[in-house]
Amino acid sequence: MNRMEDNFGAQGEAKLRYLSGEFRIVVHGAYVTCAVTGKKIMLEELKYWNADLQEAYVDAEASLKRYQQTTQKNST
């Protein structure tokens, strides 16, 4: 999402396409859900996501937890 996109007045959960370094809004909404914790993340506060898994994370800790989960599965 860039600074020029207008998300004012959006409600409900957004659907995003996560890219490397940015995301695109597919369906407008106010938040996305963390794939690890289930917590709501307001789009203005979204800083962590995985473009390969197409998932959002509430913070760096949740992102690291998912990374560890996925790398453990791939190493066994």
Question: Explain this structure to me?
Answer:
Helix content is 21%, strand content 28%. The protein is an alpha+beta fold. It has one domain. Strands 1-2 form a two-stranded antiparallel ribbon. The longest helix is centred in the last third of the chain and has 16 residues.
Record keyword descriptors for this entry:
76 residues; alpha+beta; two-stranded antiparallel ribbon; two-stranded antiparallel sheet; 21% helix
What would you say about this model in short?
It is built from 1 helix and 6 strands, in the order ββββββα. It is of the alpha+beta class and 76 residues long.
Task: Outline the fold blueprint.
Layout: E1 15-18, E2 23-27, E3 31-33, E4 40-42, E5 48-50, E6 55-57, H1 60-75
Antiparallel strand pairs: 1-2, 3-4, 5-6
Pick out the low-confidence regions: none
The number of distinct structural domains comes to 1
Q: Walk across the major sheet and give the strand order.
A: 1-2
Helix/strand/pairing category: alpha+beta
Computed Rg: 13 Å
Count of distinct strands: 6
Strand content: 25-35%
The portion of residues assigned to helices is 10-25%
